[in-house]
């Protein structure tokens, strides 16, 4: 009679151990999938600073919160259009990710702003011209470092996730008309 309770206890422990092992295996198997998804498909990106104000960080003067966006990495360097908001490796600080709006595409003639050394520039093949929405004082952009190679592009900003009251799809095409006055192509 004493054997039966011991055996039952052993079976219970074995099933709990099996369940724990199963969960550990599932966790370990999902880690590479999550890392690959984050590296190659999409990621959440936290946006700081005033360079994209008022489009991003619209509450920059009232709060220290950051906007959170979805950064679509899959095929990010293809089908680029004026008005799109992209993330890229900063040419002046290669370890830093930067977010700006595409203003010019290859072949476009861009009317530059200070401090760029020439008044107009033709965007070479394989490059784009990017600028922040925040104006000259708040943005380090192509007016500081020139056209950027499309190989530096990390992703396209597709959705605003935080703050919740502004969450939704990034409607970049609404900015294309404003940009056409700046770029001639």
Beta-strand residue fraction:
25-35%
CATH architecture of the largest domain: Ribbon
**How can the largest sheet be summarized?**
8 strands, antiparallel
The separation of the N and C termini measures 90 Å
Low-pLDDT regions: none
Return the average pLDDT rounded to an integer. Answer: 77
CATH topology of the largest domain: Umud Fragment, subunit A
Helix percent band: 25-40%
The CATH homologous superfamily name of the largest domain equals: Umud Fragment, subunit A
**Which structural class do the helices and strands define?**
alpha+beta
What is the count of DSSP helices, taking H or I runs of 4+ residues?
3
Q: Output the radius of gyration.
A: 24 Å
Any idea of the CATH class of the largest domain? Answer: Mainly Beta
Helix-strand topology string: HEEEEEEEHEEEHE
Q: How many β-strands, per DSSP?
A: 11
Shape: elongated
The tally of structural domains comes to: 2
Task: Give a topology summary.
Blueprint: H1 3-40, E1 42-47, E2 67-72, E3 85-89, E4 97-104, E5 109-111, E6 120-122, E7 127-131, H2 142-145, E8 148-149, E9 153-162, E10 168-169, H3 176-180, E11 183-184
Antiparallel strand pairs: 1-2, 2-9, 3-4, 3-9, 4-7, 5-6, 5-11, 7-8, 9-10
Active site: 51, 100
GO molecular function: serine-type endopeptidase activity
Domain Peptidase S26: 26-113
């Amino acid at each position: 009679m004493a054997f039966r309770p011991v055996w039952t206890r052993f079976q219970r422990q074995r099933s709990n151990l099996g369940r724990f092992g199963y969960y550990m295996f599932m966790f370990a198997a999902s880690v590479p999938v999550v890392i690959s998804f984050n590296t190659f498909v999409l990621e959440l990106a936290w946006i700081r600073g005033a360079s994209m104000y008022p489009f991003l960080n619209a509450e920059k003067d009232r709060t220290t919160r950051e906007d959170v966006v979805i950064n679509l990495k899959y095929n990010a360097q293809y089908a680029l259009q004026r008005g799109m908001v992209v993330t890229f490796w900063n040419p002046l600080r290669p370890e830093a990710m930067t977010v700006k709006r595409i203003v010019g595409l290859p072949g476009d003639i861009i009317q530059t702003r200070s401090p760029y050394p020439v008044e107009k520039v033709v965007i070479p093949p394989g490059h784009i011209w990017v600028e922040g929405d925040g104006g000259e004082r708040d943005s380090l952009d192509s007016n500081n470092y020139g056209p950027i190679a499309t190989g530096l592009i990390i992703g396209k900003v597709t959705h605003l996730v935080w703050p919740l009251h502004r969450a939704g799809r990034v409607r970049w095409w609404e900015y294309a008309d404003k940009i056409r006055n700046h770029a001639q192509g």
